[in-house]
């Protein structure tokens, strides 16, 4: 018998700073923006409880986890 690879959707724990709800989000519900500095690298999502747009900073470890989990990534470029 051979193993057949089955894709498992990554799920991430998150919290809303507005309504303080905690929940799990699928990779498709998150967006990651990678900028030139820590200040311009962040992830965002919409709170499923209150509908607020949430934006949080993303350090190296969070970037690794989100990209490894299939979160869509936008690379921000600086124009001169």
Structural write-up:
It is a single chain. The protein has one helix at 60-68, and strands spanning 11-15, 22-26, 31-34, 42-46, 53-57, 72-75. Helices cover 11% and strands 35% of the residues. The model has no long low-confidence stretch (mean pLDDT 89). The strands form 2 sheets. The protein has a 4-stranded mixed β-sheet, covered by helices on one side. It has a two-stranded antiparallel sheet with strand order 1-2.
Concise summary:
The protein has one helix at residues 60-68, and strands spanning 11-15, 22-26, 31-34, 42-46, 53-57, 72-75. The protein is mainly beta and 80 residues long.
Structural class: mainly beta
Per DSSP, what share of the residues sits in E-state strands of 2 or more residues? 35-45%
Unreliable stretches, pLDDT < 50, 5 or more residues? none
Kindly, what is the distance between the CA atoms of the first and last residues, rounded to a whole number of angstroms? 57 Å
Output the number of helix runs: 1
Radius of gyration: 15 Å
Share of helical residues? 10-25%
H/E series: EEEEEHE
Sequence of strands across the biggest β-sheet: 5-4-3-6
Form type: globular
- How does the major sheet shape up? 4 strands, mixed
Mean pLDDT across the residues is 89
Strand segment count:
6
Keywords:
80 residues; mainly beta; four-stranded mixed β-sheet; two-stranded antiparallel sheet; 1 helix; 11% helix; 35% strand; globular
């Amino acid at each position: 018998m051979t193993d057949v690879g089955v894709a498992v959707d990554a799920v991430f724990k998150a919290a809303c700073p507005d309504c303080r709800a905690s929940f799990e989000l699928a990779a498709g519900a998150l967006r990651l923006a990678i900028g030139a500095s820590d200040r311009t690298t962040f992830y965002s999502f919409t709170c499923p409880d209150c509908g607020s747009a949430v934006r949080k900073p993303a350090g190296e470890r969070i970037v690794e986890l989100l990209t490894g989990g299939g979160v869509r990534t936008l690379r921000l470029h600086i124009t001169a």
